Structure formats: C-alpha cells, structure tokens
Fold these 4 entries.
Entry 1:
Amino acid sequence: MKAILRTGYGSPDVLEINEIEKPQLGDDLVLVRVHASSINAQEWRLMRGRPYLARPMMGGLLRPKDTRLGVDLAGTVEAVGKDVTEFKPGDKVFGMRWGAFAEYVTGTEKAFVHKPANVSFEQAAAVPVAALTALQGLRDKGGIRPGHKVLVNGAGGGVGTFAVQVAKYFGAEVTAVTRTGSMELARSLGADHVIDYSKEDFTKSGIIYDLIFDLGGTHPMSAVLRVLQPSGTLVLAGSVAKGLLGPLAMPIKSTLMKPFVKKKMVFFIAERKKEDLLTLKELLETGRIKSVIDRTYPFSQVAEAVGYVEQGQVRGKVVITIP
C-alpha cells in the first residue's frame, strides 16, 4: 500500500509517498481503507523534529525511527477480525490511528466510531484530535458551566473553531480572540463577542472570565491570569512558540508558576477516548458542531499541505484526500 513517510527531519521535502506492507488483520482488529485524513500541528513538528529537546520522545535523535505520520482519519471498514462485534465490512467510520497518512490502517474497536451519514469523509476526518482537545479541555479540565464567561484565544484554528462551538453547546457566553480574517468565521460559529488580536489586547480590556482556553500562548501567563476570576480556570492547550523549547515552553512555565499562583492553571494534551468520540459523533449528527475546512489536498500533495499548516495561517483544518 502507499503511505507518506519521513525520510528524515527537515522541510516538507522529507515527506515522500512510499510503498509499504499493508497492515495485517488480527482477531481483535479492524482494517480500514482510509479516504481522508487531516493535519494537526504535531505533524509539522514531527516532520521538523522540533523542538530538538523532544527528539528522543519522537523516536530518534538524528533520524526518526518510526517514519509514519498522521492520526486523524475517516474511511470504510474493509475487513474485521473474528473477535470484532461492533463493525462489519462496508461500515463508514472515523477515528484516530497512528500512521493515518496511508491507504490502510488497523486498530481495535476502541479506535473508531461510525461516521454520521450527514457528514462527508473529509468533514469527519477533521474532527478527532481538534474536537477532542476542545471537548476535554473545556468540559473536563475547565469545568465549563452554563452562563460561564469563556474566552477562546486562537479561535480561528482547528481546535479553536471547535472550541467556540463546544463552549456554546455547554451554554457559555463566548469571546473569540482571532485574527482579522477569521472574525466573521468566529461569529458564524456562535461566538458572542469577537476580538481582533491585531487591534485589541484581551488582557487589557478589563473584562474578567470564568474560563480561558488558551491555544496560542501569545501573552504572558501573568497577564492572562489577571483577567481570570479567582475561582476560574486557565486551560493551556496549545502554543505557537517555535523557539528552542517550542510548545514545551508553556507546560514548563506553568509548572514553575503553579506554586506562586492561587488561580487554577491546567496544561493538557487530549486523550483518545471512545466515549468522547461517540459524544462528538452525536454532536455532528445533530448539527451542534461542524468541521471548518480551510483547504483540501490530494494525497500526492501532502508535503505542500503540511507546509501550509506550518505557516500558521489556517482557518479551521486542512484535509488530505486519499483516492
């Protein structure tokens, strides 16, 4: 089968289409023919091998040992093992499996849920990592409640577009912070207030929030905490930092600050949970959330697609189609 592999660390030129062995079907596994996958920030960071300090965790100091990429996917079940009861060949599914930039993946039943009939493969593939981050960050880490004043910093990106919708689903009053070109998008997703970060600094507005969902790490944490209620929560779920520490700077800073800060700060990375994928499936089916797709690229242009995501100007998600 065909798959996108990294020939090393570096620019998008290190991404190439290669022929690799089709995954074997075990008794408890589901074989899925991938129709679409989406790109997250982790893909370009793994491609670059940045931050350098994280390379041992990436599987190799000088070269990646596991050269595959991709997590989000949507496709059709091609075969199932004898112990699988939830799925059958022909079922349309979406979910998360490492190596999703490929024609086929295998996984246990926990990795997939049925795709809603009212969304396309491309729309479904845009959901898993981004929407799980929004759901778990706001609900589980942020303790969101109806009537809460919630600020989403970085509301125009993949996680941010889902975060605005999820916060509205939970009955919050949502303020979206984004760039000029994404302001109307944020309003269309339900944001009650929209701040253009190029013209206004939300940390100086004087408005106090119950929950701040920070996806950019664009402001000093001390400034962000000033506009948070004493009983509120700052959820740190992403960073645009590209320095020596890259996105590691945020959890390190928050850990160092915690002993000196009375307000609640939480840094987290989304977990794959079947029950949460089922929740997202229901929200998609009922129209409570939708995928925002900036661009769609064919499989042959994955390198270009990852390079575009790396630029940091994506509105919503970038999706790859696999013919």
Entry 2:
Amino acid sequence: MTAGAEDDGPAIQVAVERLQQLFHTLDPFPFNERDLDEGVEAYIVDWARELPRELPLRIVVHVPPEEAGTDTARGLEAALQHFFAYRSHVIGRDIKELFRTGRMALSVGLVALGLCLALGNLVAGRIGSEYLGRFIEEGLIIVGWVANWRPIEIFLYDWWPLARRRNLYTRLGAASVIVKPTPRRSR
C-alpha cells in the first residue's frame, strides 16, 4: 500500500491482490456494510492525516484486472463511504457522551467547590489560631478546585482529538474511490 499523487492531486493509494483483503474477514454483514480490516483502516486514516485538509480526499485502489470489473469493485466506493461515515457518526456520539460526562462532573465539582468554600469559611471562623484556620480554609479551597479538574479538562482539551478524528472520518466518508486495474507482473 502506498500513498501519493495522481493526476487530480494527492490520493491515498492502496494495492491489493483481492478486494476482499480490504475488509474484516469474519464480518458476517453484506459487502457494502462490512468493517474495514484494522490494518487497512489505520493505513488509510494515517495517510489521510498527511494530506491537505482543504482538498477533497481520493482513494485509489489498485487491483488485478480480473477484480476491477466485478460487482465488488463497483460497490467499493459505497462500501468505503458507508464505513467511514458510520465511524464518523460513532465518534460524534462519543463526543456527545464525553460532554454529558463533563456536565455531570461539572455539577459535582461545583457542588464540591461550594461546600469546600462554605466549610472553609466556617472552620476558619471557629478556630482560634489564625494560621491553622487559614491553613484549613486554603486546603479546602484547593480540594474544591481539584474537584473541578476533570470537567475543566473535558471542556477545554479532551474533545479536540475526538472532533479532529470525527472530521477526518467525515472527509473519508465523502472521499471518491477509484478502482484501477494493475498490470500483471511477468515472472
């Protein structure tokens, strides 16, 4: 498998001896709904990351001439588009779940922060030693903010890689797929 440029700009180049090599062999679904082989998926995704984001993606699959005219070859574009669009949808659901978890964590974190602030204020006023009271109050404030660490991390950082991956799969789901017969090698 190789990636490179074709006549119409950069393309992901994949060469196989049989089109069935592209798909997971144990998948019982019809051809156009099958999962890609994990190695093939990783290869295509890795190359797609390297190509310019502003250009549409193209996948060129090189196959032996007898495979190029089959029904499988004619359905390959739909099968690959279906697979990547489905993966994009799954990642979109993962992002929604991450934000749902973030909202729950934020609710818990804000309650914890409020309790820590109130408790710190209460303890600081009841302890005679100014140093010890301040020590406990500051400690509780820190605990309250640490309780918000995870929701802050989710809302500021954790969703970016998922969104980038979803966008890449969306681009791959819209990629044009070209099946090209490869000449037989003479031995």
Entry 3:
Amino acid sequence: MSDAFAHHELYDIAPRRLAGAGSLRRAIDVAVAALALSLLAVVALVLLVLNPLFNPGPLLYRQTRMGRRGEGFSMLKFRSMRTAAAQRTFDAPLEVHRITPLGAWLRRTRLDELPQIVNVLRGEMSLIGPRPDAWDHAKVFLERVPDYRRRLTVRPGMTGLAQVELGYAEGLSATAEKVGVDLSYIRGRTWQLDAAILWRTVKLVAAAGGR
C-alpha cells in the first residue's frame, strides 16, 4: 500500500452485521467465479477469432485501479477501444470514437467485464461492490470528493448498486452521487440486496444496456 493511502480509521467501518459473513461471501465469490471460468474461456476463444477482423489488437486491456484499503491492482477487461496515446483525465468525456464496432457490442452486453472473474479469484475484487476507479482518477477523488475514502472499506465489485442505479459516472458531481449510493450499499448491504443487484445486472446484460 502506498504511504499516501496508509491505514485510516475509516477502513474499519465495514458493517458489523456482515462481520461474520466475510468468509462465506468470499467463498461464494470464488465458487461463482470458478464456475464462470468456462464462459470466460469460450468468449475469449470467440474473440480471438473475431478480433483480427473487427477489433485488431490485444485481447485484454489492463488498467491499474484502486481497490480495498487504497491498494492498487491490475483490473482486466476484454479490450473494446483502440489504443490511446495517453490516459484521459477524470473529467474528460468517454472517447466514443475509439470504441470499435465489436467493442461497442462487448460494452453493451458487459461481456468486456468478464475477465474480472480472474480478479475475483485473486481476491482483488468481489462479485458485488463499489466499482473501482482508475488509480490516477481515484487519487483526485480522494482529495476532492467528500467521503470517497469510505468506498475503500470493502472489495470493489464487478457490479454494484451504483452501477445499476446510475450507470457510467463522469466528472466530480456524478462521482459524488455515485459515492452516496455506494455508501448506502456499504451501510445496508444484505444478501437480499446483493441478489437484487445481481438480478438487475442480468437484466441489463440481457437488454444490452451497458456502455
């Protein structure tokens, strides 16, 4: 962990109601991710065939994200955009002109997120939790968005309440709104809430409602 994100008292606020459920939650994450490995392999094989025609370049995209307790990790995605010369800033709009035709379909179906099951197996992510932000963006949000640090008390998720409620967030005001929803989830998360988030995620995937 970087000195800039050393231990902070806010990292100890995880809901007590789930204190005894942490091991079970992790076991479920691992079990579901392991079952999804076959789906990941099938999609990867299909993309290896399609990418040279519709999305030339590497199969995977790796980006450093800020995870639990402010620790950085390399988050995996199927690449959906052409390579950029530099990483965009936190307040820059999504560069839609860089999204390839195949990448647009991957993003709508959210299949571009599927490689993150590897991050789940590594213990860097959970199936459900606050979405992790890019490292450089997160450093800005820590300084400029109230209570942003509280999002780092739990593992980030492949999907989450803010994802299904708000969708993609751009800029400080949208991030602040996202933080509010994430904190509501952290304070009140239950198995029932997780099931509802998962169900809404499935419906978004089926409707190709990603971005």
Entry 4:
Amino acid sequence: MKISLVIPLYNERESLAELLRGIAAVLDTRDLTYEVIFIDDGSTDGSYDQIKMLAKDAPTHVKAIRFSRNFGKSAALAAGIDAATGDIIVTMDSDLQDDPTAIPDMLKKIEESYDVVSGWKKKRFDPVFSKNIPSKFFNWFTSMISGVKLHDFNCGFKMYRAEAAKSLEIYGERHRYLPALAHWNGYRVTEIVVTHHQRKYGVTKFGLNRFLNGPFDLLTIVFLRKYMKNPLHFFGTIGLLFGFLGCAVLSYFGIDWIRSGSMHIRPLVLLSMGSIIMGIQFISIGLVGEMITHSSPKKTYTIRETID
C-alpha cells in the first residue's frame, strides 16, 4: 500500500521540516511506502526554498508543486490530489495543528470498508468567537443540508481511498464540503477524533470572508447536485410558474374585455405581463444552463515548477 500525503501551504516555512519529521516518525515504522506532496500556494516567505532543501534530504518521499500565485486551498488540494500516485490519499494542513499520529487510526477505518475518514477536532485550540462558535453553526447547518452527519466538515485532516479523492471536483471554496461531495458520489464517509494542536508558528491565513463565501458555496453545491445535469428542470419550473400566473391573469382580463367591450390598464395587468416576461427569462436561463453543462470546470491554477 502506498500513501500520498497532500499538504497545501501558504507562508509556512518554519513548520515544514518539523512536519516532515513527524510524518516520517509515524510512517517509517510501518510497512508502507509514502510520498509527501507539498503544494506551495504562492508563498512569499521562502517556503518553496525550504521544500527544495527537504527534497534533497528525502528525494524518494518529497514532491512539490509551486503555484505562480495564491489560488486558494481548493486549487491546491485539486493539484495535489491530481498528482498523487498512492492507493490512499491523506490531506492535512501544514501549520502543525494536525497530528500525523492519527494516520494509523484512519487506516483502520479504511480497512473497515470506509472510503473517506474525516478528522474531528473535538478539542480545539482556536479563538472561540472567531472560529469555534461559527464552526459549530457551520457544521450543524452543513450536516442538515448535505445529509452527512459529521461534527467537523472544515477539518483539513482527512483520508481517502484514491478513487474517492480523484472523483471530487474541487474548486472555489469546495474544500469545506469534500465529505458531502464524496457521499453524494456514493462513497462511505465516517469520522474519528483527531488531536488538534495550537498553532506554533505564524498566523492563520483565513479571513472573515470565509463566513460569506461558505454558505454561497454550500448553496451552489446543493443546486449542482440536484440540477447540474438538467438545470432546465429548476429554471424551467420557475419560468412556467411565472408564465402560468401571468397568462391566467391576462386571460381573466381578456374575457372581461370581450364581455364589457372596454379595457382599462390596471396595475395587475402590468404585473401579469411582467410575470410572463420573467417566465420567458427563467426558461431561457435554463436552456443556456443546459448548454453550459456540456463544458467541464477549467483548472483555476497555474504551476510554476515541480519536484518529482
């Protein structure tokens, strides 16, 4: 069995050597081969130079991908998973808050026929008001919407069978919902409690915009899950509803006009005409969506150099 560890990073130079030592301490003692794929997401602190030094010391284990600029965690995970050659793929953060000692316990869950094992940071060392409380609400809401009962969707420490990881389309802010995406693809998902450490170096790279982007991305994913292959079913239904209401009201006034021989422009007449126009627009959007579904998401990153 070969394990690929996919590790996105952005300005985490101080953590990398210690992280690699921790991974080696866990995996070198087991009958496993492994590769560590660092994805430098446009770091400016010399992180990639540090990775090249680590690669010289461990050329059989360390690989790297360097982006031309910062594209975000989803793009980094997509590139790393695409490059991974292992039977099992592990994703983890580079800030030393994820503990590699949980990897054997995750492997046991994989051996129990699960396809995705998600980490649960039951005891967290993050700021209460800026991370812990919002995360609890986020996890509750995501569980309710997605149908996947997990305590910690946003934990970056996860293990996948390779086929499950490579089935995921990761872009935008989708890295928050990978267990849900895997579940919707038909893979078995579970979670285990993992040790969470305090950040040792640097500061968090996630700002307040994650609170705004997260719900929008969840809405997008739910929509795509149900209507990606047939968007006209969604937009067309709304369009037909508006069109039917508008035609019904206009028909009433038309009959009244025939009976009385006079027609007065009323606000309801204008609203019904507007309803018909909106119905036509929604149906048109659905038709355009049907054409768009024939195209695939494009890669949202560019690679400057790699270490193989």
